[in-house]
Amino acid sequence: MERECPWKEKAMQIQAHEEDLATQQDSRGQASFTHGLICCFDKEKSSIRLDSVIEEVVYATTLNGVPYRDMTCSPWDVRELVIGGLFTSGRIDRFDQILNLEIDEEAGTVTVETTDDAGAAGLVVDRVLCPEASRDRPIEPMLTAQEVSERIEYLEGGSELFHRTGGVHSAVMVDREGELVAWFEDIGRHNALDKLAGWCVMNGADASDKILLFSGRVPREIIARAIRIGFPVVISPGAPTNLSIQLACEHGVTLIGFAKNGKFNVYTHTARIR
Asked: Was 166 annotated as part of a binding site?
């Protein structure tokens, strides 16, 4: 008797998961991931199973008629990503400095035009603009130790796309009471934070009394973005670096790392944790 091909059987399961895909929609109203068949090994035993695979796209960006950069990113919230990238790099300082922004999904291109006076002054750190004014930020209590643990549990519990695919980072803005303000995800940790930055620029959001929950490691370029956006507190389950700790200390940012299971390390400006 001829044995039915396991790949064919699993392929039929893909069609059965269309409703499941529809429940995981991004800002485009489309599924955030695709289903694919993989050969999975558990020790020495193999099996064919259906897996959720995160999507990735590439956009070639032109700024004022000149090739600017190629962006590899998740295919949602691209407008926020572009605006946020221009803001964190210091190419713009306000939303009204963007004259035109066109995204062609089929061609994979982004065209941006800005005003002649676009840009901002400050110290450039790893291609990110850090404003000097943030060094004068007051250090006042904002969170209890219990609230820090609750915030990171909120991030962990809400990261459904990560749990499904293992392929995205999250950048989340919450207020002092822990209420969600904005949540952005991307395959790149820098992109996730740039998307959040873009949303803040587009909506005139003030981050000076908000908290950043960040899912990945916190090297210097991540802290530089948090400073540019204006966050006083950054909480992550990941590790900081010596340079990110130094930059956070200089700019008055409370940097919290290895936050998980009720434990965390405060590396700078502990006075914000009471």
From this structure: no
